[in-house]
Amino acid sequence: MTRYQGVPLLDLKAQYATIRAEIHDAINRVVESQHFILGPEVEALERSIALYSGCEHGIGVSSGTDAILASLMALDVGVGDEVITTPYTFLATVMSIARLGARAVLVDIDPLTYNIDASKVEGAITNRTKAIMPVHLYGQMADMQVLVQVAGNSAIPIIEDAAQAIGAEHFGRRAGSIGSLGCLSFFPSKNLGALGDAGMVLTNDAKVAERLRLIRNQGQKPKYYSVEVGGNFRLDAIQAAVLSAKLTHLDEWTTARQRNAGQYRKLFVEAGLRVSSGVLDADSEIALPAEMDRCRHVYNQFVIRVRERDALQNFLSDRRIGSEVYYPHPMHLQRTFVAWGYRKGAFPHSELAAEQSLAIPIYPELEPAMLETVVGAIRDFLRVK
Ligand SMILES: *Cc1c(COP(=O)(O)O)cnc(C)c1O
Q1: DSSP, res 291
Q2: What is the pLDDT of residue 3?
Q3: Whose CA is nearest to atom 5 of ligand 1?
């Protein structure tokens, strides 16, 4: 077996090495055109991402965070409004709500999937609820069937935070295409990553799409005449050109992520570990991601649970194996949001996930021996410890 100098959590250089010429062609095309902001490269990417996601319109923006902020603005979310979302997410989801003076009404996760527990959302709706914002965490979609029904009953729009889930499916429909709005991130570590910050909003509503095009460009129409509050949320042409080149590889990369996930499942069992699905139970020592029925999981992250998570992370780090906790501090416990009055213990499933979860390497270019190295190290920790 090949010996590796450790295994990184993510190796962007390995991917770049396989598409170097395409990336350089894309960059050169934009540099030669000297057209750097919005324009034909951005429009081409908007069309191809919308098509890829099974949605009518794509609006290229400066980041996933700005996709969420612009989406909330397009729904007129403001002071006194409430948006229902999950405490177990990246800061950007909840921070965007706070930036507009609105309040995040948090609903605990389903511990099996780490996604918002759709069955508890109805009970959180009030007459101030302006939107429901599920997050498709780690690359698997929240239960959109239940959410669409609950939201539909009260005529509340859904904004999908699909930053980690481009190409994921729930009952055949893709992430970002089901809600009123869907938000993608092209942060370099996402499944489709730019050479910097970039994002996109998806929608099937032509009017909302037009409004988002205004909001992302200072709310001006025509130029220098303000029609509403907007910002500079524009996407750069260089990022769009690079993303168009990378999009042609996304399905191969997703297949490789899924293959790695399948390999992990096999290897952990072969290593003799007591494995459970989604959550730890009395008999298991490691829980592997639960794949829900009729879902296409795109594995932006492969997240395991163990009881002594921090000790495992240190052990892996000593063996130069990368891992990360997504996320160690749920939103209801963040200092910035104390005014909302949430307390420790309010969302026990999120709090337990924050203590037990650990993302291990899943990127497409991992070699079989690297997966064996990761599994071997985790086995050694759980056995020798
Ligand atoms: C990455 C991410 C964002 C923010 O995207 P950026 O492009 O980094 O601004 C928002 N929500 C989730 C769940 C994310 O993973």
Answers
A1: P
A2: 53
A3: 64
Confidence bin at 1 (pLDDT 50/70/90): very low
User: Is residue 63 lining ligand 1, measured as CB closer than 6 Å?
Assistant: yes
Domain that holds residue 380: 249-384
CATH number of the domain that 281 lies in? Answer: 3.90.1150.10
- Ligand 1 pocket member 163 (CB < 6 A): yes
Prior bond of 88 cis (ω within 30°): no
> What is the radius of gyration, based on Cα positions, of the chain?
21
The answer to whether residue 271 is domain-embedded is yes
Q: Judge whether 149 lies within some domain.
A: yes
CA nearest to 195, candidates 24, 67, 18? 24
pLDDT in tens, 234-257: 999 999 999 999 999 999 999 999
Angle (CA) 73-75-79 rounded to 5° is: 65
Examine the fold and report which residue of 247, 263, 290 is the final residue of a domain before the chain moves on.
247
Name the residue of 91, 93, 181 to mutate for ligand 1: max ligand atoms within 8 A of Cβ. Answer: 93
Ligand 1 atom with the shortest distance to the CA of 189:
1
Q: Closest Cα to atom 10, ligand 1: which residue?
A: 92
The set of residues, in sequence order, having a beta carbon less than 8 Å from that of 318 and lying 6+ positions away, is none
171 plus 191 within the same structural domain: yes
| Residue 270 alpha carbon to ligand 1 centre in Å | 35
Distance, CA of 284 to CA of 348 (rounded, Å): 20
User: Do 238 and 255 fall within a single domain?
Assistant: no
Ligand 1 close to Cβ of residue 239 (< 6 A)? no
The confidence score (pLDDT) of residue 265 equals: 98
Both 243 and 290 in a single domain? no
Q: Is the peptide bond before 157 cis (omega within 30 degrees of 0)?
A: no
The answer on 227 and 290 residing in a single domain is no
Task: Say how far residue 153 (Cα) sits from the centre of its chain.
Answer: 27
Does the C-beta of 93 come closer than 6 Å to ligand 1?
A: yes
Residue with token string 């800061």: 91
DSSP 41-73: HHHHHHHHHHHHHT-SEEEEES-HHHHHHHHHH
